[in-house]
Amino acid sequence: MLVAPSLLAADFGNLEREMQWFNASQADYLHLDVMDGVFVPNISFGFPVLRHVARLCRKPLDVHLMIVEPQKFIPQVAELGAYYMNVHFEALTHHHRVLQQIREAGLHPAITLCPSTPVSSLADIITDVDMVLLMSVNPGFGGQQFIPHTLDKVRQLRQLIRESGSHALIEIDGGVNLRTGQQLAEAGADVLVAGSFVFGADKPAEAITALKCLS
Ligand code: DX5
Ligand code: ZN
Fold first, then answer.
1. How far apart are CA 140 and CA 37, in angstroms?
2. Ligand 1 pocket list (CB less than 6 A)
């Protein structure tokens, strides 16, 4: 299993220390949750913090933009040297155009679906993305309960990917722990995002290793 711990649950007063153990951990990506208080009812952090974290982090960055008009920020995300740029399906009108622009900027395009957006919405763009992020909570806050219907969506998405010949990875975000992580692994998930399960653990690096062992 690939694991992308979410910085949202980290100690923002000690980012250097958090990044030190994180860089030495088995994490595959660092997941960064940007919220604008418009697309979601919460505000997290913006580019000054992202630039600081990007300098400290030795793992590829998975930037999850929970904002309106994410296409305006493609150059700034590219300047960070990010790996994935995750934009919400619900925040876009011209999905195909924006995904191409993200790729042209040298980033890996990823599309995110809220819990109420069906997997079938992706039928005509599934081969244009490198990853699909299924939200397993309503976006905006860490520490929420996993929505079990996500497991059906993972199975539907796995089928769509197989039938279309897409190479997209399936990433899940929200309420991930060892129990839901095991269910997601069995349903066909490739990447697990985890905030409170990792940063709230007594031994965060061991929490990451435990998630990585799921299959
Ligand atoms: C929620 C964010 C998540 C959040 C997950 O809107 O997209 O990435 O950090 O937090 P947990 O793992 O605590 O549910
Ligand atoms: Zn996220």
1. 9
2. 6, 8-9, 31, 33, 64, 137, 139-144, 173-176, 193-197
